[in-house]
Amino acid sequence: MRVRTSAILQLVGLAVALTLSLEVFAQEGADSSDSISTEVLNGEDLLRQIDRTHFQSETFEYEFRFHGKPWGMMETQVSVSDRSFVVRETTRVEKAGIEQIFTCRLDPKHFTMRSYAASGVMRSNALDVKVTWEGRRISGYSDFPRNPGEPVGRIVIDQELPAHTFERISLFTLLRGFPLREGFEAVLDLYSAHSGLVGPVRLKVTGIEEVVVPAGTFNALRLEITGGDPANVVYVSQESPRQVIKIQIMGQPMEFVLLPGVTD
Q: Is residue 264 part of a domain?
């Protein structure tokens, strides 16, 4: 079975979002019909409330599946110390010609970004992105295969982000420390180093589901991340320290599922 390369890149886009073009997600308040009422948190709230006990130095391995069949692998390494907080993600999807590494370095106390780097191959073309943070100011460059009609070659990055903006790759690790529970809802600004775009996304826990993956069976929180492209459903274990069990692309037959053997 053949699959459009652009569709594969969208899924790997939880690591890389090649076609990322964030959409404004406008929704006011919470549905009054919900049985659980809650306030809508913002980025500042989330940074302040992150529970660092959910983070330790460890490695997670995921299988990438298309229509339920194995197509590739993803490895997420988290390194935590008093001086650094590093998230390194390696993705390989041979059938789509993708092999790439993303490295996010964050402040270990405040969980704000320090730097982002990406390297590897996408569709037989080199991927090279480097961005550094100085407060809200970011600078660097982005060079990767883009869609027809988009800029070609290296793009210089020099812009100021809204306060308390999250970066897309590291978000999938940091969300483990958010105050997730039934009724949780938040709106935050999300930045993509590949597109250079920043915009609001909404995170909402829509319930608890039994999720079966190669790593086991979990009663996991179902977290929707909408407003960006692609939109995701993330299943997060409730036990401490939390784990991301499964990641899906809304409307696509693609997912990452956790494999056995989380290592220190």
A: no
Classify the phi-psi angles of 261: left when phi > 0, otherwise alpha if psi is within -120 to 50, otherwise beta.
left
Could you tell me whether strands 232-237 and 166-167 are parallel, antiparallel, or unpaired per DSSP bridges? unpaired
Domains identified in the chain, total number: 1
Helix (H) or strand (E) holding 98: strand 98-106
Q: Which domain holds residue 50?
A: 5-258
pLDDT tens by residue, the chain, 264 residues: 434 443 444 444 433 332 332 232 223 333 333 444 469 999 999 999 999 999 999 999 999 999 999 999 999 999 999 999 999 999 999 888 899 999 999 999 999 999 999 999 987 788 999 999 999 999 999 987 666 666 667 889 999 999 999 999 999 999 999 999 999 999 999 998 777 789 999 999 999 999 999 999 999 999 999 997 789 999 999 999 999 999 999 999 999 999 998 666
